[in-house]
Amino acid sequence: MERGLIAIAAALAVMTGMVTGIGEASVARQAVESIGKNPDAADKIRSMAILGAAISETCAIYGMLVSFLIIFVLGA
Question: Which of 1, 46, 58, 66 could, after both became Cys, cross-link 13 (CB 3.0–4.6 A)?
Answer without folding.
Answer: 66
